[in-house]
Amino acid sequence: MNKNYELAIIGAGAAGCTAAIYAGRSGVKTVVFDKGSGGGLMFTAPKIENYPGFKEITGMELATRFIEHARRYADIHMGEEVKNIKKTSDAFLIETDKDIYEIKAVILSTGSNPRKLGVDGEEKLAGKGVSYCATCDGFFFRGKKVAVVGGGNTALLDAIYLKQIGCKEVYLIHRRDALRGEKALQIEAEEKGIKILLSRKVKKIEGRENVESIVMENITDGKEETLDIDGVFIAVGEEPENKLAKILNLDMDEEGYVKVDRFQRTSVRGVYAAGDITGGIRQVITSAAEGAIAALTSLESLGKKYPY
Length: 308
Ligand code: NAP
Description:
Blueprint: E1 7-10, H1 14-25, E2 30-34, H2 59-71, E3 75-78, E4 82-87, E5 92-96, E6 100-103, E7 105-108, E8 112-114, E9 130-131, H3 134-137, E10 145-149, H4 153-164, E11 169-173, H5 183-191, E12 195-197, E13 200-206, E14 213-218, E15 223-228, E16 231-234, E17 238-240, H6 243-247, E18 271-273, H7 284-298
Helix pairs in contact: 1-2, 1-7, 4-5
The chain binds NADP nicotinamide-adenine-dinucleotide phosphate.
NADP nicotinamide-adenine-dinucleotide phosphate (NAP) binds next to helix 4.
C-alpha cells in the first residue's frame, strides 16, 4: 500500500493539471493519475485562440505546457489507470493497475469522451476512415476528400484544420439549418472554402475496407444523398467519463455529469470534481479555473488552512 500522498487527482487534462499546480503550491503531497499520456481533449484541439495569453496555440502545445508545469508540483503517473476507489472511514483506497494508494482526498477530473454518431458502418470503419480526432488522423487524408459531422466549435475547428493541412475537399455536415459554433469560426470556415451542408442527417457510412461514401437524408425534402469521400471526422459532442463517479456513487445530472457546488465539492465528502466531468461550459479556461478551485477547497479535507 502506497501512503506517500495526501491528494489524488484523476485525469491530467486542463482541470487536473491546474489542480496539481494549486495543490502542490499549497504544500499538498499530490499524485496525478492518467490512463493515457495526459492533456485530455485539449490535446486534440487543432488550435486554441481563446486561452488568454496565447493568441493562437495548438492544443498539443498548450497541453504539453500544462503537463510540464504540473510536474513541478506533483508526481504525475502517466499510463496508470484508476480501476476502483473505495471509501473507508477516514480515507480512500485507490486501486490502479499498478498499486493501491491510501489517500485523504480525491479530485475527479476525468473529462469526457467523443460521442459516437451511432450509424451503420461507423464501428466497422473506425480507424479505416472514421475518426474522432482531426489533429491525430488528419495527416493521413491530405489531398483527399473528407467530411466532418457536427455543428459545434469542435466540428468547425476540425474542418478548418483539415482544409489547412491540405485535404482536397472538406465538407461540414450538420443536422440542423444553423450551426451551433462561434460566429468567428463560421466565417473562417466559409472563407477557407469549406462546403457546409446543413439540414443533413447522416444515415450510414459505407465502404468495403475503408470509407468510400456517406449516405445522408436531406431533411428539407426527405431525399437521400450520397457523398463520395475518403474520411469522416465525427465531432458531435462529448459524453462524461463517469465510471469512477458511478463507483463513488456521486450525485450526477440526467446526462451523467457530476454535480458540484460552487467550491467543486461533490455529494461525497473528500471528493471534488473539476472540468468537463462537471458539464456546463467546457472551455480550457473554465476547466482550469475549476481545477484551481477544487485544489484549494480540498485543503479542508487535509487538515490544512485554505486561503479564502
Ligand atoms: P457541442 O457544442 O455539443 O456540439 C455538438 C454538435 O454535434 C452539435 O451541433 C449537435 O447538433 C451535433 N450532434 C450531436 N449529436 C448528434 C448526432 N447524433 N448526429 C448529428 N449531429 C449531432 O460539442 P463540441 O463542438 O464537441 O464542443 C463541446 C464543448 O467544448 C462546447 O461547450 C464547446 O463550446 C467547447 N469547445 C470550445 C472550443 C473553443 O472555444 N474554441 C473548441 C472546441 C470545443 P445540434 O446543434 O443540433 O445540437
